[in-house]
UniProtKB/TrEMBL annotation:
InterPro entries: DISP3 (IPR042480). Keywords: Membrane, Transmembrane, Transmembrane helix. The keyword Metal-binding does not apply. This is PTCHD2 protein.
Length: 453
């Protein structure tokens, strides 16, 4: 049950080997003196006996230990080590219950027990530690992109990479879950988030400088012109590289197509009317905006991601031929997590951004809705005071009152009905109530008409 292979027991080789009785009777033999002499002059196996015993200052034996070699794999994981430790606990508990007072209190220790307990603690705290690590990923992406929407997407992609790494270690490599595997899942989250962070940051930081709506006929003519220009450049031996700063692949919106120009630098010379037009077009073509942002991010940062992944894998491959199993595992884990990270950063992440990625004006409608709700909750007395102060009255030569309210002049003749009741003229907004933009929505106003005299 204890899986003992061999024992280094100095007492068995010396005292009981001579046929002496145990325990020793103090009146018959001077056991302490003979033990002192044997410990300093004889060996127990390949080692000196003095390493197994402790003597007091008056050369009396006070403690000793025996070395047992058991058949337990140190790299077998925490389960095998903990099972062996529990068996030794039960064995020594039974021994101490039957032992005499001078030798009662024996205990056991091993490096295998220490490693097994450490691995068990690590395994038990893996889920909590992994959640903390993913929380740090969310905060890190949030700091760099300042977008909660984008941070959630990146965190979900990183979770998929971690699951892929777990599949690589357990299924592909057939490793048992141990301390190295658990630490790899936690520590190498930084490798998993690196490429996703670069791509998402480029997606979020680019600026749409120009937006144009085109009909299908205009689009076909433009494509024919681009093909003719490309053919001319090929004939003279030049290469035409179309960066995302030019016209991107248009998205469809009804019978119209939308072309966008994207750049890393925001355009500040555009007029207010042009900006409002761009915002109005983008609010109707969010899917096209997501597509163009994702395409631009891949064109600008995709090559760098692939190059970085190749250099990382090339460096980690130097650890694969190592004879020490720990270094081999670390090299394999680095190669695996890098491969998963670059694949997820270039394929699933752009696909998710094209479908659910944030746009530059996603929260504008929410803010405007909250603003209108706050205005509606204002007291009516303040609105009436504002209405009384806004119009200015002008007395005409015919005895009528003229009121001016935001470039509207109203001439109203005094009547008995108007003297008894208040009358208002409702000015409807110039644009739709549901349109999004800084100035696209003008609040409805009313003009109060008052008659005096």
């Amino acid at each position: 049950e204890l899986k003992v292979v061999s024992v280094q027991c100095w007492l068995k080789e010396w005292w009981t080997g001579k046929g002496e009785e145990w325990p020793v009777r103090p009146n018959v033999k001077n056991f302490h003196a003979e033990a002192w002499w044997y410990a300093n002059n004889r060996k127990t196996g390949p080692f000196e006996t003095i390493r197994y015993v402790w003597f007091s200052e008056d050369q009396r034996l006070i403690a000793m230990y025996f070395q047992f070699f058991i058949n337990v794999n140190r790299l077998g994981g925490s389960s095998s080590g903990m099972d062996a430790m529990l068996k030794w606990d039960r064995h020594l508990a039974a021994f101490n219950s039957q032992a005499e007072a001078p030798i009662k209190g024996a205990w056991h220790a091993s490096r295998v027990w220490t490693i097994a307990e450490a691995e068990k603690v690590i395994l038990d705290s893996t889920l909590v530690t992994l959640c903390i690590s993913l929380g740090c990923v969310f905060l890190g992406v949030l700091v760099f992109t300042r977008s909660t929407h984008l941070s959630l997407i990146v965190m979900l992609v990183v979770m998929m990479i971690v699951l892929g790494l777990l599949f690589f270690m357990v299924i592909i490599m057939s490793w048992k879950i141990g301390a190295i595997e658990v630490l790899s899942l936690i520590v190498f989250v930084g490798f998993a988030v690196d490429y996703c962070l670069h791509l998402s940051h480029k997606y979020h930081s680019c600026h749409i400088t120009d937006v144009e709506e085109q009909d299908d006929e205009d689009e076909e003519e433009e494509e024919q012109e681009q093909q003719s220009v490309a053919t001319r450049l090929q004939n003279i031996g030049r290469k035409s590289i179309s960066m995302a700063a030019g016209v991107s692949k248009p998205g469809k919106s009804g019978n119209h197509r939308v072309s966008m120009k994207i750049s890393d630098i925001a355009v500040t010379k555009a007029t207010t009317e042009k900006r409002e037009q761009n915002k109005r077009v983008l609010s109707k073509n969010r899917s096209a905006e997501r597509f163009e942002r994702s395409k631009y991010a891949l064109e600008r940062i995709g090559g760098s991601i692939v190059g970085s992944a190749l250099t990382t894998i090339g460096s980690a491959c130097c650890l694969l031929p190592c004879t020490m199993h720990v270094f081999f595992k670390l090299g394999a884990v680095v190669c695996g997590v890098t491969a998963y990270a670059v694949v997820f950063a270039l394929v699933p992440l752009p696909a998710v951004l094209m479908c659910f990625g944030p746009c530059g004006h996603d929260f504008r409608s929410i803010l405007e809705l909250l603003g209108r709700a706050a205005q509606n909750l204002m007291p009516e007395d303040e609105e009436e005071e504002d209405d009384e102060e806004t119009p200015s009255a002008l007395q005409s030569s015919t005895g009528c009152q003229k009121f001016i309210d935001e470039d509207h002049i109203l001439s109203v003749a005094p009547t008995d009905e108007l003297r008894e009741h208040r009358r208002y003229v409702l000015n409807m907004p110039s644009k739709g109530m549901g349109q999004v933009g800084d100035t696209s929505h003008v609040q409805p106003t009313r003009t109060r008409i008052a008659i005096h005299g």
